[in-house]
TrEMBL record:
The keyword Repeat applies. Belongs to the hcp beta-lactamase family. Pfam families: Sel1. Keywords: Repeat. One of its GO terms (cellular component) is mitochondrial intermembrane space. InterPro entries: HcpB-like (IPR040239), Sel1-like (IPR006597), TPR-like_helical_dom_sf (IPR011990). This is Cytochrome c oxidase assembly factor 7.
Length: 251
């Protein structure tokens, strides 16, 4: 049957049929990729976050579907899907870690960030070396944000004190968990920029201008500065387009 997606009745019928197909593919055919689509359908179309949460959790636990582990990790961290529930960082970390073990780059990013953060949730113990392992795995799988964070950590180094002055200068190298290493910082920034991280491109421009982690090169400094500015303009255009489209939606 052909649907006219300009007609509200056809759209409604199409979406209902889509939900039936996803339920069949998940519950009858037991296809994990379809179960994940069902979770997305319940989340974005039906706005039934409680059911979506259950589908993501089950799909992670029963089928080891990495993207569902990541989604349920997000739900756990935010307390989403349970009425009146507070976030559970410990459970979120558990599912992020599982998603990372299953090679989901976003799961590796989030499990790493939880472990290296200065504002660690009290339910978790800060573990910078393990966090860096997760971030490195994410970066190796071409997650631009992970590469950018790793670059920043190597620009300033990370001190052992979790409570305060984590990035403050120190002359005692034994106080550092991650030592300042501008060559590594440059390499991570370069990869993050290649992966279209605007902030990494801006940092790369400064590194070339100053000769930090690489030889000074004014031409390349200008090149990456231009790239960062072009990305910034593209982000602004996308935000303006999105705002315009939202303004056209009926109340």
């Amino acid at each position: 049957m052909a649907y006219d997606l300009q007609k509200e009745s056809d759209v409604k019928e199409y979406l209902e049929k889509l939900g039936v197909e996803y339920r069949f593919g998940c519950y009858s055919e037991k296809k994990p990729e379809v179960c994940h689509l069902l979770g997305d359908y319940l989340e974005s179309i039906k706005k039934d976050f409680e059911k979506a949460s259950k589908v993501y959790k089950s799909n992670c636990d029963d089928y080891g579907y990495a993207k569902s582990c990541y989604k349920f990790g997000n739900y756990s961290f935010l307390g989403k899907g349970k009425s009146g529930s507070k976030g559970d960082p410990q459970q979120a970390y558990k599912y992020y870690e599982k998603g990372c073990e299953l090679n989901d780059p976003e799961s590796c990013l989030h499990s790493g960030l939880l472990l290296v953060s200065r504002a660690m949730p009290k339910q978790l113990q800060r573990n910078v070396p393990k966090g860096v392992e997760f971030l490195t795995k994410s970066c190796d799988m071409n997650n631009a944000t992970a590469c950018f964070y790793l670059s920043g950590m190597h620009i300033s180094g990370v001190q052992k004190q979790a409570e305060s002055n984590v990035h403050a200068p120190s002359n005692n190298s034994s106080e550092y968990i991650i030592h300042k290493d501008m060559k590594k910082a440059f390499d991570f920034a370069y990869k993050a920029c290649e992966l279209k991280n605007m902030y990494a491109c801006a940092n790369l421009s400064q590194m070339y201008a100053r000769g930090d982690g690489t030889e000074r090169n004014e031409e390349k400094a200008e090149k990456f500065k231009k790239m960062a500015l072009e990305m910034q303009e593209e982000v602004k255009k996308q935000q303006q387009t999105l705002g315009f489209q939202q303004g056209l939606l009926p109340n």
